[in-house]
Amino acid sequence: MEPVNTDVSAGPSEGNDDSGNGPGHTPEVPTLGMILLAVEELWPESLAEDWDEVGLVAGHPSAGVSRILFAVDPTLEVIEEAIDFGAELLITHHPLLLKGVTSVAANTAKGRAVHRLIESGTGLLTVHTNGDSAVGGVSDVLADALGLQNVAPLTPAVNGLPEEGIGRVGDLEDVMTLGDFAARVFGILPSVAGGVRVSGDRDGLVRRVAVCGGAGDSLFGEVRASNADVYLTADLRHHPASEAREAAVDDRPYLIDVSHFASEWLWLPPAAEALGNVLSDQGHDVEIRVSTTNSDPWDFILTPGGD
Q1: Could you give the CA distance from residue 96 to residue 125 in angstroms, rounded to a whole number?
Q2: Distance CA 155, CA 157 (A)
Q3: Is the dihedral of CA 40, 46, 48, 54 positive or negative?
Q4: What pairs with residue 58 in β-bridges?
Q5: Handedness of CA 34, 35, 36, 38 (dihedral sign)
Q6: How far apart are CA 206 and CA 172, in angstroms?
Q7: Numbers of helices and strands, H then E, in the chain
Q8: Strand partners, 91
Q9: Phi/psi at 235 (nearest 5 deg)?
Q10: At residue 270, what are phi and psi to the nearest 5 degrees?
Q11: pLDDT at residue 304, as a whole number
């Protein structure tokens, strides 16, 4: 992936407001606890799926936070990037401790991550399926990047607004061929080894599009019910994809399979900007950056007839 450096400085807004944050107001470095309240405003934990583990993983709520790094994965390389940046807080989409562990000894990968975070004074906060479901979340960003209109959730949130939930479905402004639409998908994503895989007639016409950032092969029922012509998601496994093709009506929905990392990376810049705006409105002085680390697990791919 080409390095992308996104910096969002959160400082006091110009002009006067009810909080007294006007010209001459001294910016305030917020505590981690204040950051948690801002994050909850944007991506409420109540929107997270029951199986998920979101929220604060490491860090003291009273600690000051002047720099924040956003990333997809809390890998050791990303943690080192956060430390080098001087971030007191790392916000990742994926959890570090999604599955239970019985030890965080430093001779294990997750243990080393926990030790490095604590020893460096770097907090870790996870915004996962609550970041998927919320307005402006992962699938919303995908839908916007693809130019979808009249967007609605594939699965409405139980505890959220009507426009919140997992996945999105909407319509392209104009009918496109599947090949052209796949090229559009390829063009908006960061470059990773896996590229874009497509199932369907290259010349088939599509207009209604379903998307789900991250692994979305559990949503085929909702995709079919939405009457989507094509479904874009990541990590499509052989059997669910094969069964979806067998169950297709007039070959639809076509399938587009992309990198899990790439599909969710798109959310990071707007998420960083959104948090920066909330903190700025509150008169806080925070520098926010998006990670440039490519944490996609694949390094290269061989294809028939390719190099």
Answers
A1: 9
A2: 6
A3: positive
A4: 124
A5: positive
A6: 8
A7: 10, 12
A8: 70, 125
A9: 60, 35
A10: -65, -30
A11: 86
Q: Which residues of 232-259 are buried (b: 16+ CB within 10 A; e: fewer)?
A: bbbebeeebbeebeeeeeeebbbbbbbb
CA distance 201 to 210: 17
| Site of tokens 């609605």 | 152
One-letter amino acid at 80 equals E
What are the φ and ψ backbone dihedral angles of 267, each rounded to 5 degrees? -75, -25
Q: What is the mean pLDDT of each run of 10 residues along the chain (307 residues)?
A: 53 45 68 97 96 96 97 98 98 93 89 96 98 97 98 94 97 98 97 93 98 96 96 95 89 96 97 97 96 95 76
CB 282 within 8 A of CB 38: yes
Write the CA distances from 127 to 33, 49, 185, integer angstroms: 15, 11, 24
Beta bridge partners of 64: 31
* Overall pTM surpassing 0.85 (yes/no): yes
